[in-house]
Amino acid sequence: MEVIADAISWVLIALGSFFLVSGAIGLIRMPDVYTRMHAASVIDTLGAMLLILGLVFQAGFSLLALKLLFVIALLFFFGPVASHALAQAALHAGIEPLLAEDRRGRDVPGGDEPEPDGKQEGVPST
Amino acid sequence: MFVLATSAVLLALLLAVIRAIRGPTVFDRVLAGNTVGTLAILLLASIGFLTGRPEFLDIGLTYGLLNLIGTFAVLKFFRHGDLAYDVDENQEGKAWK
Amino acid sequence: MRSLVLAVALFLFWLALSGHYTPFLLTVGVLCVALTVFVASRMFIVDDEGQPMELLLAAPTYWAWLYVEIAKSAVTVTRIILDPKLPISPTFTRVRASQKTSAGLATYANSITLTPGTITTGVSDDILTVHAIIREGADDLEAGGMDKRVRQFEGDT
Q1: Taking the domains of chain A in order of start, what are their residue ranges?
Q2: How many CA atoms lie within 13 A of A19 on its CB side?
Q3: Range 16-75 of A in CB contact (< 8 A) with C
Q4: Using one digit for the tens of pLDDT, what is the confidence trace for B10-56?
Q5: In this complex, do A95 and B61 lie within 8 Å of one another by their Cβ atoms?
Q6: CA–CA separation, A27 vs A30, rounded Å?
Q7: Is the pLDDT of residue A113 over 60?
Q8: How far is C23 from chain B (nearest CA, A)?
Q9: Neighbours, chain A (3 or more CB pairs < 8 A)
Q10: What is the pLDDT of residues C87-99, one digit of tens each?
């Protein structure tokens, strides 16, 4: 039993470390701030969560494991809030994203409410 | 195994710090700073296990909360400071009711 | 009722973080919880938006589903990062959120942001502006699978 838990946590920690490092490489390689945000979210989600899950298997059933789960919950709930605020602030400051395709002007299908007029809100025109 | 985790976190930290230094915009730096905060939590956790003193985790939790507040403070400053003041602000008022 | 649930949750949080169960610390904990609940109700944030406890029962299955989605798209993004050619095709798009409650809308927007490869950059009424790192990510969101899943999660209770 001990051996199995050890093996699982080994695998989780190794995987988490891999995603951490590759997310950080993405942080260096990506061309602009929006694409870098995607790389950073790999670190925030899969990398951090796998690493911490691996540590949970090391901690066993204890208060420590519970605290590690709190750390996961913290990242889970506040990570997207921070990256959303960052993306919105960057757009607001007028930083132009590198785009391969811009579909912001498209009609949004579905829903029963009337379409809002074509005006873009809070988004600098490209 | 904890050595592996710690060195991976340190390597990622190094890359994030390089991004923070190179910029080029302030938002790149804030993003890198936020990532450094996340990595610091992980570093505290794995060092705690490495040295057999997992109490470090409490500091990590506190650090995570402070990191969130710090990120928001910097973003608010740059949003309402000189950088973005004359851009139309209509998005905030229309938030979901 | 909501205040009671909030108080119990806060007290469990206190117990989990403290780890010392002496009478003095327990009393201090109860006092802190009472103060926090009092302040929260004075701020009128103990409502269905600030504390969506109806969603609590449906949450674990939704989170499990979301974890799988996160893992899938994180692997995709990692492939892109490690690809020597860096095959990104950043796309901005707008999608409609069909959730009825604000908690549901926040869940949807945050789930989009949490999934690597897509970030919600703006919300106006029920239209979300989303930045995706590759075209396929934007296509998936426009197809509306996640929207449907969140609506189901919201309506489960």
Answers
A1: 2-92
A2: 29
A3: 19, 22-23, 25-26, 29-32, 34-35, 37-39, 41-42, 45-46, 49, 63, 66-67, 70
A4: 998 998 888 888 878 888 888 888 888 889 988 888 888 888 877 78
A5: no
A6: 6
A7: no
A8: 22
A9: B, C
A10: 778 888 887 777 7
